[in-house]
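Q: Joint fold for the lines below.
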Amino acid sequence: MTFDLRAFLVMVALIWMTLVQPAQAQNALGSNGLNVPATLVAESQKVQAGQSVTLAFVMEPKPTWHGYWENPGDAGIGMSFNWDLPAGVSIGKPRFPTPDTLLISGIMNYIYKGDYAVLVNLIISEKVPLGSLPISVKSEWLACTDEICVPEQDELSINLTVVSKDAAVSLDNAFNAYREALPRPLGSKATFSVRDDIFRISIPLPENVDITDPHFFVKEDGILDYAAAQKFNRDRDKIIIETGARGDSFESINGVLKIGPQRGFAFKAIQGDVTMSGTAIAAGGGDGGNFIGGDGQSNTTLLIIALGGAILGGLLLNLMPCVFPILSLKAMSLAKAGGDQAIVRRDALAYTAGVVLVATALGAVLLGLRASGAAVGWAFQLQDPRIIFVLLALVTAIGFNLAGMFELPNVNFGNKLAQKDGAVGSFWTGALAAFVATPCTGPFMAAALGATIVLPPVAALLIFAGLGVGLALPFLLIAFVPAIRRRLPKPGPWLDSFRKAMAVPMFLTSIGLIWLLGRQIGTDALGLSLMFLLLISLLLWWFGGGQMNGRSRGALATMAVIASLAGGIALLPNEESMDSQKRATASTAILPGEPFSEERLSELRASGRPVFAYFTADWCITCKANEAAAIQRTETADIFESANVAVLVGDWTRPDPVISRFLEKHGRAGVPLYLYYAPGAEPIILPQILTVATLTDLVNEPVATASFTPSKI
Amino acid sequence: MQILKSFSIAAIAAVTLATPLAAAQKIGSVAQDFKLTDVNGKTVQLSQFRGKTVVLEWHNPGCPFVVKHYESGNMQATQKAARAQGAVWLTINSGAQGKQGHMSGAEAKIMMATQKFQSSNYLLDSKGLVGKAYSAKTTPHMYIINGVGKLVYQGGIDDKPTANQRDIEGARNHVTAALTELKAGKSVSVAQSRPYGCSVKYAS
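A: Joint structure:
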């Protein structure tokens, strides 16, 4: 029965898919000959009078070709549109996705290398009659390679159908991705200044928003020296950018801040005072040195500086709680073997090889992920709770090992003082040290690793290798400088106590990881994970007990540990429940809310409850300010509760297409948006700056007139 | 001796590196002097034209935006009018060897004859040094230097940034307008505009 039902559903879905074809344009000239061919598509072929429909120019540059942003930069031309529209139809401003930079011998181009879509809204007035609605547009754009440019044009047309208000309208899902690529309106204004050919802009952006490879774009020409290097500072909830100016004839400008692949924010900026406060983050774009032939030059300098930073950072990493125990004990074991120079050096080199190899491999994975479009940084693996769990188990196991609960046959932290380590053992100790070091970051590392974004891959890998060399440097010094080795304290019974004491920083690292895991998966799932951790610890204890009695339980213990690790991983919550965890955390707020959906909204409206819906994002300062000042206040919460107001929260931190469309329907391109639905009345759009009074007054009004009895929730 | 030689090479290299590239020249400041070889192998220096108005035009015969103004005859007419007023017109090619639009002297001479160039001279800047000193970004990119050697105009040829010949009619030709104002003893009303076209194909 279940099976039959499923087959039926699949059939229905297939039929539906073949029927609902997205409206596709025919182009008069044929786009085969073009280097950046354009296709005009509509989000829905059927439209209703009085509504608007989004059209997309889907641009598909051939390999090596690119198209231009609305401001093309130093050279090139933006796209132009010449519409032929029926009566009663009007067109909005074209909206371009966040562009890329392309710097060729000091000339900056703002471009799109891959496929992209330019969106426009077609507004159909109430008086447009039912039936066919032909739309055509003549568009011109410039297609270029790094070498040559070709102006291209095409006449595109599309035939829409105006349907009655109660007819079903289906939407093309491809538009979700097109919208995601658009820069999102930041909601608050930026401030810029031009002084002595220096352009500065201060952009409000919360400090917890991740930024990789940033670039600041401006729509107006004549204010920015496009090719000049851009310096980025972060000062709490501000990003401040300094770069070269070309002029100062603007009172206000429109900017786009790119903070990662296809992630950008759009905002208006007005003239004001801007100081370069805060701390520097990685510089982006520009030709760096302003030197003739400076590209290679500045990259080499950058590489040397970054490599120095990486080695220094790696060296300091040795002092962090995750690495220090391993380092100090390993150092002791080298000191012990003081007599045999050759063995000490062999061990130190093997350890170094292990460290450098793992550091470089982690770097390679990082670069690979970045190349595939993920916005990740160092410790990227800590975004995945499964890896945190494995690391947690590992660090805890090392802690117990140091505390003396069990011994390990191959990986030796210097505890088997009487024995000499094999080179293999040293290698694995090094590999482990590099892996365990990843949750920790030290000074100098951020800047050095930031440079890996702008450097070519081989140079970037060199930086990661440099980090490994820095991490291994103390050992190399101990091994190759006998004077240092002689200064180390003589091993003795105290060393055993020292080793046990070193379990403390290791357990501190465990606590850090538990905290991190808890933030990601919530306390319920964390509790379960810790049960598995306990199980692993007990297994290790049992294994250690065997060792003391001279019985080998190695194989059995290893299997059992792997099984419980796998169990722990399998029981970790998936992404969906992690999202609900986030909401659960939100519901501990003063004014709890449910996640927004249109279904839930109409449900609540149908039940006659007043609804307050607000749309927010973690990166939106105005939203957070309003929440702190007006929404998450006991006054508001009390009044809302007594009036039985339902609260819906739309989180747009990630570009949720459902919310994007809802915002657009209310004439907003971004957050914040505050709506109040009194029972049976049209929604009221609230101002973007809220006060407690704005909210409480709203509720008080309808309560007096509406005829329902407030009830306790 | 050897040491002295390598020292002086290092010194020259350092000076070359320190030459600012992106320091765009300001309107009203003295335009950077330069020496370039023309299509006949003769050296031409900017300062030899002191006392006359000089127009600089960046050129790349393969660029569709340049083609727009030459196929229509607009650029030649602008050149002719400028020279009739007594101005000197230097067309400069900063295309590097192997890149689009690079020309040898002989090739340039043939092109100038067939396309009926009216400029005073065609200069070869395949190393791009002069182009970068002037921050020439596009082809065409226009500069006007007055009789005392000061920069009075930089930017596009006109205000219709397209590759379409039909847009020439009705566009404001910034160069013609500036030259007319200079001739009448007035200051240039539009001294700066956005240059448009292909990027200059520099070597690096």
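Q: Anything notable?
A: Residues 24-180 of chain A form a domain with the Immunoglobulin-like fold (CATH 2.60.40.1250). Chain A touches chain B through 34 residues (CB under 8 Å).
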